[in-house]
Design goal:
Structural class: alpha+beta
Strand content: 15-25%
Helix content: 40-55%
Largest sheet: 5 strands, mixed, barrel
Shape: extended
Number of domains: 2
Mean pLDDT: 79
Strand order of the largest sheet: 5-6-7-9-8
Length: 346
């Protein structure tokens, strides 16, 4: 019976970083390989052709052999080679091989302390902040649409239809105005009719809306601190749900060009476990104060140092916001993912 082979259903692969790492290990990387095979031409002289001429046309040599070239370009197999190379390295840890029953958070962090590469399989949450921004922007319009769909068969249908008719009529009137003052007066009446329609829907048909200031605030916050952010949160140990592997993924490294396809296939919280292979980039301590580069200049009296520290203090002030959205705190760890996939045997 042939040995089963493991293959990966890749969702994400950082090819550039994988190539960089593997090329340092293997003194360069092969971009493609060629295998030449010779096959007998198998030509029959009874066909009535000049055999030498025919062979020349198909690329055969005079011995009746053909050279066939097969080109292989390594792509996903690069990941397998990289993983195989570092599998027994002291800098690598495979959380799938740890016994969850014998672990605690302190021991786990101690095991991770001197590691660079990490592999883990577990439950996943997917957070696409651009998607959240889009949903927030359109939430109220969708909510109103759902309410309007519910009007049919309700007791407010006649009143609703009358308001819609007046709104349509008022818009036509405004379009014909050239006088700015007259247009402003009737625009105010149109706004009042639209508000009355929303109030009518809110009072009679269940629906939920987000205050506009909150929509604007969400968009501003994401644009400032979380642009293009896609968080993958991995939970390798059900016994320790507060131990989390957090990764920020780059859209261009998804195998599917549109992450919506992944959200549709797996969901924002997949019910199948996924595997991450990457590099540990943040291992926050529980209660140890980290090195503070501004401490050394605190007591300096020179004006130049004081001026420099004032500006650096501004950056330090913003670090609070950045730390707030970076989500880097004990016992969570942060990784730069090289690959995310589902592995199975065939």
């Amino acid at each position: 019976m042939s040995k089963k082979k493991k293959i990966k259903d890749l969702l994400y692969l950082d090819t550039a970083k994988a190539v960089s790492l593997f090329s340092q290990i293997d003194e360069g990387i092969i971009t493609q390989s060629q295998v030449s095979e010779e096959e007998a031409a198998g030509l029959n002289s009874t066909l009535g052709f000049d055999i030498k001429v025919f062979q020349a046309k198909i690329g055969s040599n005079l011995s009746g052999k053909e050279n066939q070239t097969v080109t292989r370009i390594p792509h996903h197999n690069l990941l397998n080679q990289l993983q195989s190379t570092i599998d027994n390295s002291d800098s690598f840890i495979d959380l799938d091989k740890l016994d969850e029953k014998e672990l605690n958070i302190a021991d786990l962090h101690q095991k991770l302390k001197d590691k660079i590469f990490i592999k883990a399989t577990g439950w996943v949450n997917i957070e696409d902040y651009d998607r959240l921004k889009k949903i927030a922007e359109r939430f109220n319009a969708i909510s109103i649409f759902i309410q309007e769909c519910s009007v049919e068969g309700s007791g407010i249908k006649d009143q609703y239809d009358q308001l819609k008719k007046e709104i349509k009529k008022q818009r036509k009137i405004i379009e014909q105005y050239k006088d700015r003052n007259a247009k402003a007066k009737d625009s105010a009446r149109l706004n009042k009719l639209e508000e009355d329609l929303i109030i009518l829907l809110d009072e009679n048909i269940e629906g939920g809306k987000i205050p506009q200031y909150l929509v604007d605030g969400i968009q501003l916050f994401i644009d400032t601190f979380l642009p293009n952010r896609i968080n993958f949160r991995f939970y390798p140990f059900e016994q320790f749900p507060n131990f989390e592997i957090l990764s920020n993924l780059k859209r261009e490294n998804f195998i599917e060009t549109d992450i919506e396809n992944i959200i549709f296939s797996f969901g924002s919280r997949p019910n199948l476990k996924l595997t991450i292979f990457g590099m540990i980039t943040s291992l926050p301590p529980e209660d140890i104060e980290l090195f503070d580069p501004l401490e050394r200049d605190k007591d300096e009296a020179e004006d130049s140092i004081a001026f420099e520290n004032a500006f650096r203090g501004v950056f330090r002030g913003f670090e609070g916001f950045e730390q707030f959205v970076r989500y880097s705190s004990f016992p969570r760890i942060t990784t730069t993912p090289l690959a995310i996939y589902r592995e199975f045997e065939i």
